[in-house]
Amino acid sequence: MEDWALRESLLTGSGTVRWDRWGDPGGEPVVLLHGTPFSSYVWHEIGPALAAVGHHVHVWDMAGYGTSGMHAGQDVSLAAQGRIFSELLAHWGLREPSVIAHDFGGCVALRAHLLHGARYRRLALVDPVALKPWGSPFFRLVGEHSQVFEQLPAALHEALVREYVTSASHPGLRPATLDALVGPWTGQEGQAAFYRQIAQADQRYTDEIQPLYPSIDLPVTVCWGTEDTWIPFAKGRELADLIPGARLVPVPDAGHLVPLDAPARLTSELLAFLTA
Question: pLDDT at position 276, please?
Answer without folding.
Answer: 84
